[in-house]
């Protein structure tokens, strides 16, 4: 991870994607950018790093970190893999490329969730953190920029000696465990795909698709991040006949109104689970008005975009 720096030499590029030597494909981003303040920062067109999460066996997230080589800026600290952007690269392309070069990860197994500028100077250089997930901790391969690569449980990241740039950004990048309650009827109704002809079947298909998309990082209202390890779906009416058999989906069968069930569930967890953030997925204004003030909501389009 190449972060704002006033000193240190040019970091080695290692290998470009496809196994070709860096010198044969030298990008035009290598070099120092001089900002309006006179400070030098690595990456003529800015820089980017990859914050890659993967679920551990217990379902909690781990983050891939590199232990920076002694010769690098703030050597001996831990940070994200990353580096200079080339002029023809987006932050996402640059971050994934640099991570592949520095850690040997498979880009095909990386699912990008979002990107965020986490450092920069007015009118000039920026550092963008690209937030991504992968289904399980991948094997990694060192290059000369690291002395160790490690999948670190997210709860342990702040206990490590972090690069100052990453340490400053981390509080806004870390996740909070999320209990996601799904207003299933409302989400189902947001897709005009003929679900009304077979509500149980359409419900089962929707939940099966959503189950395939977790665990994952989710961006929450206000810009913070959450970690969703499973989805809790409330079923009402005919949808209660849906057959659901997946550990990533917990079903609550409403005896009456699904909204009533969701309101009760949200109030119960809001009062008890102070370490877990309850989030309700619904576009129903009436239901939203019944939820506790500390329970945020997400639009159905948020989860449908996962599919």
Automatic annotation (TrEMBL):
Keyword Hydrolase listed: yes
Any one GO molecular-function label of the UniProt entry: hydrolase activity
Cofactor(s) the record lists: Mg(2+)
Alphabetized UniProt keyword annotations: Hydrolase
SUPFAM superfamilies assigned: Nudix (SSF55811)
Disordered: annotated span: 1-39
Domain Nudix hydrolase stretches: 43-175
Composition skew (Basic and acidic residues), residue ranges: 18-29
Pfam annotation, one family: NUDIX
Keyword Hydrolase set for record: yes
PANTHER family: 8-OXO-DGTP DIPHOSPHATASE-RELATED (PTHR43046:SF2), GDP-MANNOSE MANNOSYL HYDROLASE (PTHR43046)
Record's protein name: Nudix superfamily hydrolase
Species annotation: Rhodococcus ruber
